Amino acid sequence: xxxxxxxxxxxxxxxxxxxxxxxxxxxxxxxxxxxxxxxxxxxxxxxxxxxxxxxxxxxxxxxxxxxxxxxxxxxxxxxxxxxxxxxxxxxxxxxxxxxxxxxxxxxxxxxxxxxxxxxxxxxxxxxxxxxxxxxxxxxxxxxxxxxxxxxxxxxxxxxxxxxxxxxxxxxxxxxxxxxxxxxxxxxxxxxxxxxxxxxxxxxxxxxxxxxxxxxxxxxxxxxxxxxxxxxxxxxxxxxxxxxxxxxxxxxxxxxxxxxxxxxxxxxxxxxxx
Length: 273
Known about the structure:
This protein is of the alpha/beta class. The protein has a single domain (4-264), classed as Ribokinase (UDP-N-acetylmuramoyl-L-alanine:D-glutamate ligase, 3-Layer(aba) Sandwich). The protein has 9 helices and 9 strands. The radius of gyration is 18 Å and the shape is globular.
């Protein structure tokens, strides 16, 4: 059967991150996407100018209504916006959602800008043991552990193990924003710590990379034989999506990755001979 994957996250009108990026990723990787909104943002490639939060009770109603009817093979969780929504999602993970969960703890941007207050960060930290995989960036990993941001690969490995100790069965610390010509992420599970390397792409169009990577893993888990295989294939797909990002020319800021890089190039344009 075609896998069905749901995202619980915020909206990005520019289409590069959030719910929009998640649904594009699911479709690009052969999964049917469902979506539960936690927040509306006023956002473009140049930044966020406003956030309108969905009432927590309505977030719960969206999930309960969906799960009562639709089979879910995986769930991705992204921006939760407030501590109250994070608490509600925790209850849903305990009582309602049975599919494996990829938690992208959207708390701190790769620039280091905080997106959640301390209470909300604590609430997201409580979700860590309820997920099958968490995918923090370097700043988020440090915030979850209450430690300084990892400055090298050894520190990133140590923090991946530290997050495992918090109860996460699997951890992917996204370290691709470091220096050099190689992007290295650290994956930790019960079998140990592994490095995932890929060429670093010279482009400013990386808006939504974290959202897209976590969504890619959620889409591929039902289609692969193991979590490490799904994670590795998701990273390869994202690397290619970043490599094709400059083809899109969306906005004047940090543009999106090309989610459909493997599909659009060979497709005929309707109405042309």
